[in-house]
Amino acid sequence: MDILSLNKQQREYEFNQNTQLMNSPHLGNGMGELDLHDVNLQQILHSLHEEAIKKINEFSFLEAISDLMHCEEILEAVTAKGELTDIDEVIVLLNNLAMCYQRIGEIDKALAYLDGSLYNFKLFMPKSSLKNEIKMNSIIAKISLQTCAMLSQKGMHKNAYKFAKNSQNYIESSIQAVLRASGKYLSKTKTDNGKKPSSKSKLPSKSSLSLIKVLDNFLTTGKVLINSKIKLKIPDWAMDIAISDIMLIQPLSIQQIKEDLNILEEISPDALTYKLCLLACCHYSMATELNYIKNTSTLCDIGENSVEKEYIEALSILSTFMSKNSKLFIHVHEGYLKNCQKILQDKDDKPKPSSKISMRRQCITPTPPERNKAPQKVRKNSAAYHNSKGRRIQAVSMQYELA
């Protein structure tokens, strides 16, 4: 079973990096009679998109696809005339078509449209500010994870692993940008010589400051500094978010893609916790794909303990910043026990070799962490690994004062 518990036969698939509306398989002659100067195309697009979203919410995906195809034809006709189109509408359209095709099991079409959404997003989104960098990297990380899930569903585990790894790099860059932005924001609002900040300046909440302090140290050193004075606030939704809420493509609206969070909102517990959910899912996905590759490929260069260390990394993040009772932690922990403890048990059942005989072991697995074991014990193994591989974020060390 793959990440989404869907098992499909492996088939060949090649990415078209230039998947755009110009190559639409649905472009026909139906729009040829449309006079672009006599109708309000923007109003038609919005109306069709709203109808499609309603049908998506009713699980009428085929009808939603029909409406979205009309949107696609209109945008194609506008583009053919050399007129400008709103790139946000293109991205939302491609995402929602990918989502509908995924729901009805048309994985190849879903991958093609999601690839087109990612291509346009990378090409046209601005990168001139830290705020845009945070948003862009987070969205690309999520799209990459969703691509990983579908490639895994098709049995293309090496490609799926690459997308999971890319997703990790993007979400870590997003978190690093948040830390840099929070440092700059705090330096601007910090009082000088006892003077109060201006009325326009707002300080982050204590829960945000606590989370930033722990997160900065966690990502830099791999250690968790939590004492009685620092209490991490876990959002209520974090207990119920499931792996499918992240790995499955979700419907997207124009309002969502245009949403412009300020720095205070980006460093809120909700926004940071969601980014940490993405990071944990990246490590879980890499562990899942590495396990498939290790078990199915005879010509693979995978470290004997690479799989469990990715699992431990995901569990460490979730147990530190969320809860061991959360759905996401339980899902990842079950995967860890299934794929790693079995190897440990098989290894213990085998007779120990003589010291004069060299035997290659299939997996070197540490004792799985107990449910009530402190997070620090789990993290030490993972921190050593990542320090040796140089995969840690070198975030800027910052000093924070808690009111």
Report how far the terminal alpha carbons are from each other: 49 Å
Average pLDDT over all residues = 76
**Per DSSP, what share of the residues sits in E-state strands of 2 or more residues?**
under 5%
Structural class: mainly alpha
Poorly predicted spans: 1-33, 352-403
Shape annotation: globular
Order of helices and strands: HHHHHHHHHHHHHH
Helix content: 55-70%
Tally of structural domains: 2
What Rg is obtained from the alpha carbons, in whole angstroms? 24 Å
Number of helices: 14
Q: How many strand elements?
A: 0
Biggest sheet statistics: none
The quaternary organization reads as single chain
Concise structural overview:
This protein has 403 residues and is an all-alpha fold. The chain has helices at 41-57, 61-80, 87-103, 107-124, 130-153, 157-189, 206-221, 243-247, 254-258, 263-266, 269-296, 306-321, 327-349, 375-389.
Characterise the protein shown here.
- This protein is mainly α and 403 residues long.
- The protein is built from 14 helices and no strands.
- The protein has 2 domains: 1-124, Serine Threonine Protein Phosphatase 5, Tetratricopeptide repeat; 137-191 and 202-349 and 363-403, no CATH class.
- It has helices at residues 41-57, 61-80, 87-103, 107-124, 130-153, 157-189, 206-221, 243-247, 254-258, 263-266, 269-296, 306-321, 327-349, 375-389.
- Helix 2 runs antiparallel to helix 3, helix 11 packs parallel to helix 13 and helix 12 runs antiparallel to helix 13.
- The longest helix is centred in the middle third of the chain and has 33 residues, at 157-189.
